[in-house]
Structures are given as structure tokens and as C-alpha cells.
Amino acid sequence: MTSSYLRGDDISAPLRIHADRGAASVCLEWADGHVTVYDFEALRWLCPCAYCRGEAGSPGWLDSNPVLTSEQKRLVGLEPVGGYALCPTWGDGHHTGFYTYTALRAHCPCPACTAARSAAGR
Fold first, then answer.
1. Which terminus of the chain is less hemmed in, N or C, by CB atoms within 10 Å?
2. CATH number for the domain that contains residue 21
3. Number of domains within the chain
4. Is 42 helix (H, G, I), strand (E, B) or coil?
């Protein structure tokens, strides 16, 4: 799955998104040249939906620190949501998490971004 997004001067959206099922990863290429790669398991752990993250003060399913099954880590679809997010569909049928481009960039797992977050105390 590969998508290209050209959004003019909006640098918060990736220019290219590629989901590689063989490598079990999603690659986002940003306008500033930065590349973010998430493995499917890490992406599933980032799910921002109310079921996974909780709502109204109640913890979410991911807060229970479950062991993810192979189906819960298998990406079967990846769709854009407007011009601001991605919505993955997982092998277990879960598809309610909208991963904003801002959040995907902010949680970039590359060594440089991880170090910058650590230095900033986040």
C-alpha cells in the first residue's frame, strides 16, 4: 500500500505513506525530509481510540498491558481520514483508531526523535 499526499504548504501531513506487509512496517516520508518508520506492533500500541486508551476517567484495554496476538498486530488496511489522519484496520477487526499525522510525527521512534523527546523531558 502506497499513498502520496501533496498538501501545498501543510508540512504536518506526510508526502508519502507506504505500508509494507512483508516487513510489517509503515513508512511516512515528511516534507522536511524526515522519515518515520513504525513496525505494526508499535503502531497498534499507539492506538488512540477510546476502547484502547480509555475515556471518562476509565482506563483503556491497552492500559491492562495485554499480550497482543498475531491478528492484533496484522495490518489489513490503511485508509486516510480527511487530510489529517490514518485509520488502520487490524486482523482482529479493530478499526476505530484515527492516528493523526501530528501524533505520528510526535511519537516517531527513530533515534534522533527519541533522543530529542528524552532531552525535552517527554
1. C
2. 3.30.2020.30
3. 1
4. helix
